[in-house]
């Protein structure tokens, strides 16, 4: 026994699955981002410490001693300026080179090799002191403001005690973090795509199974009808032979024969379900008149006040399979006649045709109880019926004949509850009629 999941329930299950996966992805992704952001901040803080360390004067005691000695020597007459200046330049050069080496080492080992984090150091006046991983042409005021909004700044002190200066390190996010922020959307999009493909495939398989079942049932019904139809032909011929002189009996026999022929046509229609319909250009008017004539004679009496209006163009041709097309129109006319059984006032059924720009429109209108707008599409789905004993297959079959076999369209053109319904068929003409509007 195969387990079948209803289509609506399957949709709900897939949507819930997508939501749960989406929530889980966002939560876990945010966890990874937070960890990376913490590591990046640690790396930038180490780089900032390196800047702070590099900005401090080295050999502070030695510098103070030299400055004190220079002052004393100056009181005594001083050393030659060249010698004194040489001492100062040597110390400053050593400080500068050591500071640069410290800063570059910190940048390469701590920040760049682990994370390429865009960073900028500014002083209290907003002047840029250092940058990292930012192209100079992209270093605009707007970019600096973006970095300021991205993360809380890291504050550092550079220089000696007497020349101390506060500077601020602003930094953004590495490419890895930015990529991770978009990853959940990409993952959910791909998952939604896969679920959509899966659902479409499942729905296609279901439709194919239903179609195969329908085709099998139709062909089996046609096969089963074949034997009793042949037998009925034989009995009618026997009845005619025995009542050749009775005009009334012969009339009844002829009507019975017409009905049996109709039944044989129905069997032929069932037999053609699932096969490629052979379409030929046919004038549409005789087909419609034949259907309406038959339905008027064979359906239960609707009352003498029922009017059947016809406004059918005699010149228009379309490519049709006559048996299948008649079946479709019969279903529409029968539904219209059923709809006016309980209608008050002056009930009527109307079949009209008109053409425009190569398109043929066939409209079947009734003055029945009408259809609410929310059911305009539902009535063409298998199983929908307002009748107590209805199977809800008539309009579904009609839609399939018009759209799948004749490449046309069928839909509720207009319907007002309590006033009536108009169902329209659209098909392509095989010839254009002169003067068409």
How are the elements arranged and paired?
Elements: H1 7-54, H2 60-75, H3 81-112, E1 119-123, E2 128-132, H4 141-150, E3 154-158, E4 165-171, H5 175-242, H6 247-272, E5 280-283, H7 284-298, E6 307-311, E7 317-320, H8 322-339, E8 348-356, E9 359-366, H9 394-405, E10 409-416, E11 420-428
Parallel strand pairs: 6-8
Antiparallel strand pairs: 1-2, 1-4, 3-4, 5-7, 8-9, 9-11, 10-11
Distance between the termini: 58 Å
Largest sheet: 5 strands, mixed
Helicity level: 55-70%
The count of strands amounts to: 11
Structural commentary:
- This protein has 437 residues and is α+β, with helices and mostly antiparallel strands.
- The protein has helices at residues 7-54, 60-75, 81-112, 141-150, 175-242, 247-272, 284-298, 322-339, 394-405, and strands spanning 119-123, 128-132, 154-158, 165-171, 280-283, 307-311, 317-320, 348-356, 359-366, 409-416, 420-428.
- A hairpin with a 6-residue loop joins β3 (154-158) and β4 (165-171).
- α7 crosses α8 and α8 runs antiparallel to α9.
- The chain is rod-shaped.
- The model is unreliable at 109-113 and 433-437 (pLDDT under 50).
Task: Give keywords.
3 domains, 437 residues, 9 helices, single chain, four-stranded antiparallel β-sheet, alpha+beta, Heat Shock Protein 90, five-stranded mixed β-sheet
